Amino acid sequence: MRPNLRRAVSALSLVAVLFLSVQTPLLNIDFEATTPPSLSSSSDPGVSDVPTWRVGDKWVYAGTFDPTLLVTNTGVQATVGEIYGDTTMEVLEIKERAVDNMSVLAYTLKSSANFDKSGVSLEGFGGNVYITYTQTEYL
Question: What pTM was estimated for this model as a whole?
Fold first, then answer.
């Protein structure tokens, strides 16, 4: 082989070895850490991401309410901005309900929120806004 070709081949070989040595951690499989697939006796391919809530479970979301579009569509001159507050969700009951002639387990959830904002202007009158929101959902 010619000296230039020999150098090129050895340089490419070195690059290939370096590239493969960097990639080997990506190719390693830890067979001890892998768990065998669990066998299930159920043949129902139903929904697998069903919530597991209990009656009395509660959680709180920090929320934002922006009534700008709502007020603008009424033709009223107003300055409101974003209104902040917390929304509390609570599981009230779990019972069977009929849906499409099938009996399904359903959660009854109650959402309630309180929003307040000071410095609101409506048709030239200033003041505070207090919003109370309640909703019942069946999931």
Answer: 0.50
Residue 86 in contact with residue 131, Cβ under 8 Å? Answer: no
Containing 16, the helix (H) or strand (E) segment is helix 3-27
Query: Could you give the 3-state DSSP secondary structure of residue 13?
Result: helix
Burial class of 123 by CB neighbour count within 10 A (0 to 12, 13 to 18, 19+):
exposed
- Answer whether 58's CB lies under 8 Å from 36's CB: no
Among 135, 139, 138, residue whose Cα is nearest residue 87: 135
Tokens representing residue 12 in the block: 């490419």
Does residue 55 sit in helix, strand or coil?
Answer: coil
> Domain segments of the chain: what residues?
58-138
CA distance 29 to 89: 43
Report the C-alpha gap between 111 and 92 in whole angstroms.
Answer: 10
Cα(23)–Cα(21) distance, rounded to whole angstroms?
A: 5
Distance (Å, whole) CA 131 – CA 117: 9
pLDDT in tens, 38-89: 555 555 566 666 668 889 999 998 888 777 777 777 777 777 888 888 889 9
